[in-house]
Every structure is written in C-alpha cells, then in structure tokens.
Design goal:
The structure holds two protein chains of two kinds. Chain A is α/β, with parallel strands linked by helices. In chain A, the strands form four sheets. In chain A, strands 9-8-10-11-13-12-19 form a seven-stranded mixed β-sheet, with helices on both faces. In chain A, strands 2-3-1-4-5-6 form a six-stranded mixed β-sheet, sandwiched between helices. Chain B has one domain: Thiamin diphosphate (ThDP)-binding fold, Pyr/PP domains (Rossmann fold, 3-Layer(aba) Sandwich), CATH 3.40.50.970. The radius of gyration of chain B is 20 Å and the shape is globular. Classes of the chains: A alpha/beta, B alpha/beta. At the A-B interface, strand 7, helix 7, helix 8, helix 9 and helix 10 of A face strand 2, helix 2, helix 4 and helix 10 of B. Strand 15 of chain A pairs parallel with strand 2 of chain B, so a sheet runs across the interface.
Chain lengths: 571, 280
Amino acid sequence: MVNHGDNKTRSILNILIGGEAGQGLVTVGQILAKSLVRSGYSIVVTQSYQSRIRGGHNTFAIRVGVDEVIAPQEAVDLLVALDAETVKLHKEEMSSVGLIIADEAFDGTDKATLNIPTRRLASDQYANTAALGAVAAVLGLDGQLVARTVEDYFGKAHPEIAEENRRVLEESFRLAAGQAGIFEKLLPTVAHPPQRLMMNGNEAIALGAITAGVKFYSFYPMTPATSIGLTLAAWAKDMGLVVEQAEDEIAAINMSLGASFAGAPSMVGTSGGGFALMGEGVSLAAMTETPVVIVVAQRPAPATGLPTRTEQADLEFVLHAGHGEFPRAILSPGTVEGCFYLTRKAFELAEKFQGPIFIMTDEFLADSYRAVRPFEVEALSPIQPWSLEKPSVSIPYCRYAITDTGISTRILPGLTEHLIVADSDEHTEDGHLTEDLLVRKRMVEKRLKKAEAIRAEVIPPQARGEEKPDLLLLCWGSSEGAVVEASSMMSSRGIRTATLHFSQVWPLVSEHFMGRLQEAKEVVCVEGNATGQLARLIRRETGFHIRNRVLRYDGLPITPDFILRELNQER
Amino acid sequence: MFSTEEFGQYETAWCPGCGNFSILQAVKRALVACRLRPHQILFVSGIGQAAKAPHYLNANVFNGLHGRSLPVATGAKLANPDLTVIVESGDGCIYGEGGNHFLAAIRRNIDITMLVHDNQVYGLTKGQASPTSDEGFTTKAQPEGAASAPFNPIAVAVAMQAGFVARGFAAMTDHLSGLIQQAIAYRGFGFIDVLQPCVSFNRVNTWDWYKERCKPLPQEYDAMDWQTAMQVAREWGDKIPVGIIYRNGRPSLGERIGRGPLVVQDVDRRTMRKIMEGYG
C-alpha cells in the first residue's frame, strides 16, 4: 500500500452512489467507473438494485484503489446521494473519511457534506451528471478525461443531450474543485495509467465466448444472466453469430442443441428458475452427445427468490440437473478475467467431450465491473468443430462409435454425404433407437467413460498463503477476492492463514487439494449459501468433513468484513 | 439419381394398418420430387409413434425430446440455412407438450416444414385423449369422456397468419405428397396437419370415418384470402376440407438472417480487436 501521509488522500476508497431506479444511477456509476479505470485505478463494482423499473432504493458501489482491489468493502468513504433517502439509509455506514456529496436540498446529516446546487445547474434530468462532476473533482480526476468518457456514452446517439451533459459536468466540476482546501483530492494520481479494459462478469463471458468462436446463443431474459445475451446481440452482426430470444428456457436450450448439432458452437445463459426448465435439455445434450455451454448466473432462491440479489446456492442443483447418469464439468470463475478465460475453456471442453459444460457465476460477479488487462486477441484461437480431415470417416457413419475414450468422431449434417443420426432414445452406434439391452449397457459405459478424460483436464484449486496454516479458508466462484483479502488481513495480524479457491467445482480431484486440507489446523469453508454445499460435496467425494463454515445467504455478496465478523464470532 | 429407393426401406415399430405407413410413403415421394438427396435433409422429431418416422428413411436425424422438436429444428436451421429441415411428430408432441413452440414457430416463420401426424389420440402411451380428441372421446384416462374442447391447430395457425397452413389425409397419399412438396418449397414455416387413424386406440376416427369426410378444397379456392380461410379452418364435421387452407408471402426468419452454414465461417479477428477496444 502507498502511504500518502495525508489523512484525506487514500490509496483505497469506497464510493457508494445511491438513488431511485430511473435516476440514471447506473449510467453515472458506469461513467465514473470507466473514468477511474482510464485514470489507472483498479476497481471492484458492487451493484445492488431492486426488482423494479422506477423508484425503490438502488446503489452502485465502486471500491477503487491505486493498487489492485479484489473485493467489495462495506464501510462507505464517499457517499454520492442522488436522493434524500440515500443519505438517511447510508450515513451510519460511513467511515472516518466520511464525505457526502448531495444536492443542497437534502439535509439531516452531521457528516461532512459537499452540497451541489443541482437546481441552479440544470434540470432534474441532469442531476446525475451534476453529481458526477462533483465526485470527479473531489476525487481529483482529470476533468477532460471525465468529459471524454461522458461523450463516449452519449456522443453519437444524442448530440443535444451530450452537449447539456458536458455543460452541467463542467460547471459542477468547477464548483466542487473551487472548494479545494475544504475537500482535498481524495485519490493520489496514477502517473502512468496502464491500459485497462472495463467490463463485468457477464460481458467477460460474452467476450470469452466470442473469442472461442461462439456462433449461436439462445436465451430467455432472466436476471442476472440477461446481459450476456445483450452483449452478444450487440456484436452478433459484426461477428456473424446468431442470438435468438427463445419463447422459454426449454426452447432456449433445445435451440442451442439444434444449432450445435448443425455445427455452431452454442451457449445458453440463465439463472436458477430458468435453468430448472432446462433440466431435460441438459440430459438430452448428454444422451445425444451434443456440445453446449450453459451459464448459470445464480440468484437467491427457492422459486423467484430475490431476483436481483446474489447467492451461491445452486451448486448441488447444477451438479445433479438432468435425469440419468452422465459426465459433466462445472467451472466457477472467481474474477472477471476468470469469466473470460473459463468461458473459452468451457467451449473447448464441450467440443472435446461432446456434452453439457457449465459455468456458474452469480449476480455479484455478473454485474461487477472491474479493470482488466487487455486480452491478447491474436493468441486466442477459436475452437474448430469442423475440420477438412473428418470427411475421411467411412460411410455409413456411426455417430456413436464405441471407442477407448468414449469419444466418437463428430461430423456435421449437410456438409458431406455422411448421414448423422442423433437420438434421445438409447441408440445403436449408428444413432438409431434400440431396445437391445446389451447395446444399452455398452452405451452407458461409453458415455461414462468420458468422465476419465474430463477428470484429466480439471483445473486444480488455487492455493495461496501459508503451506501449513493454522487457518485454511476454502471458497468457490465469486467470493475469491473477499476470501483472499480476509486472509491477508488476518495474516497481517499474525494469524497463519491460507486460502484455496475452486474455479472448477466438478469433477473434484482429491489429489489436487487433500494435502492442503490435511496440513491445516483448521479448515473453514466460505460459501454464499445456507448449508455449505461445497463442504458437503468435498465430504461426499473425499470423506473429509469441514465442520466450520462461514455462510452468507442474505442476498448480499461475501465481503472481507463479513468473513472477519463471522470468524470472530466463532472464536 | 433421385429415387425413393435412395431413402431406403426399414422395419418399423408401427401397428399393421397404421396411417404412418402411407405418410412415410408420401414423404419419400415428396423428397424425390423436390430433388433432394438424403444428406441435404435434416429430420427433427420428438417422442411418440409418429416421431419414430425419421428412423425409417435415410436422412440426417435428430430425434429429440417429447414436445421439443421445433426449437431443435429452429436452432439447426439458423445454424445451417442450407439444410432442408423437416419436423415430424404427433399431435400430442406438437400441440400438447410443445404448444408454446408451435405458436413461436408460426411467429418466427422459420423456414422449416412441419408434418403433424394427427390421430386425435396418444398411441405410444396406449390411448389417452390428445389435444385434438373430440369432446366426449372416452378413454381409460377419460372414462367420462374428454372434458376439454379440442384444439384446432389449423384455425390457430390461420388466425396467427402463418405463412403456409395445410391439412392432409394419410389415405390421400398423392395429394399429401403434393402438399409436402409445396411446404418444402415454401420459404417459411410450412405447416401440414395430417389426419390419420390410430388403428389400435381410436375406434371413433377410423379410416372410414376420415374417408367419408375428407374432401379436397375446390380448384378455385383462393388460399391467399384470409377471411375465407378463417371460415374454412373452422369446418370440422360431416365435411373436413383438405388442401392448402391459407398461405401468404411473409419473409422467413432465415431470410432475415441469411448466409450459409455458420460453422464454416471464420471468426473475424479484426472485428474482435475492435470489440475489445470498445471496452477500453
């Protein structure tokens, strides 16, 4: 950490923008986040919104750092209130830095406040821009850079709106900057900003899919997965891929299987309830041995649950979805970069093993913007479902030819004179339905055989910290950053800690992690659910019982503060 | 080069006297008449006795889940517009389990042909009422008679201004084959409801019952006239009209998307770089 010798300037700062839905909160949040990334800072965004289009109380939190930030923070250093409610709801969460930026009409706080004369600056429509100008000045951002970022958002589509935004931004920036002395620049300047991209988990999944060569995506809108489809749709024309909004999730997965059968690398994205409808399709993918990537962006359940909040309670569901026995792989990225690279990996696995491959995220990661290193597009090759050598396969072609690995050569319909027959019924090697029970037995074994090869490609969990720790924290998916930060906080207090993050939760290969579990004095599993699903899965697979768990199931993301609180309670 | 022999001859799991045999014949003849080779065709079916039909001829086949043939066919057609995609399944599969997909396929006007073997009963599960069973039709599952009004797929399709709506009858094989040819040639969702008896489980709607009632539409019938088509679509009684009941020139979803098989198209790195830059 950089020591700036100034109690106001901070190397890490948590900014919370609050307001009603419909006030342009997310727009301001995105522009501010992008301005920060362009200025060279690292960010972790946490979005909290209600399942409604107008009103209510929503927040867009940006934790920003000169060095890398990896997790959300609870205490608010800078509160940007777009409505009076925000001040009321969040003033108790303020840290000692505690500064509020609010319209001069909002009162009722004894905290340090920078008032913005919104009404004198602009009409209500531009209140968010006025707030943005003030925040940018207080943070010490380059006004020109922020203005350019605003222009990038509004520039081309609505020139008159862009012009008004620019004016309001400038005036508000000048007014706030004029109060320097009262409010120092809160962030130290990054002298040479590195080149970074800003994206959230869903966008990273979409981009990872594009570089992997996705050609077909079908979906039914469902929070928090929807923006994967929206991102792909935005580039569909340019990239020559088809994005189809299906009539329901059952249609979505069946369409993707049809497209994949016809050769297009295919993906579907949904959340728990929609995935429940896809269950039979998962089984169909396995039986017909059709590659498909399935993204499950989790949210709190059962049933409709909390549609816009976060949770990690569908691990067992995804693991067991689909009737019958068949192999699968479940990837669970912990970061936005992880979303990108593991989506590519999912396409490779789906193509290679010809079946359903899962990516599990959650609302927190799906919506969490981060600054990421640019991806080396040239080095990222797309998968090749089609090669010119394949037509040398003899005719009649056997789609389900029995092989040592269980994997049969896949060729695609319509491109050669081979006839490809796929069947949801038990089938012979040439794909036709059969009730020959000897064939049945061989086909079950053929499909399950693929599990061995999938196992050989499992990503081992990432270990950090002490090799023989007093305390080992286990986690999977989006809580990686929070767990790693909590661990290093404890370690700085002299506790010998380590972490183990699973970015693949199925299959589990015990040799990858049993040593770590056994070396630790105490193991705690940190999960975003109420019952400890990963802990239970580890016990089932290895016999190792993790009794201590830190579990969060109130709809909010796991934070370092939460983990520390829970651990202190236990001790 | 083009002959029905190329499509093969297979042993089936159908009951002797089943309407499916003549539908299969009509399909093969239509494929030959359309000058299609087996590898150019993809049959997609669901579950049921009708859904087994694609196993009994030479072509590409995806025999999927009950009710879900249409979405699979839609995905395959969008992924490879060069394929001639034909959906073949029964009334329970398409109108019952897959009803929502039927409505969506009409709205999309995806360029596929759909043959619904409609025998007004569930055969494979041994004789329960289907969506098209007449009210009062008694079965072991509906001992007091089917309480629901029958679904009229033709009227629904015409009401939704589907691009191509026809009814055929299994016993009128040449006529049916002609309908299938036209549905395949139509660049959109070509829908044919094919009446057929179930000789095992439907003792009411028999060969004779249909033969007495099924009458081709007159030569001068104008299938482009929607108002008249709506009336004809509702005729079901002593006379059941067969033929192309309604058609129009709506562009298909495939036409709107256009281009060849997605799989053989390169992934454009330059565009990919441009996309990435947009996040900077």
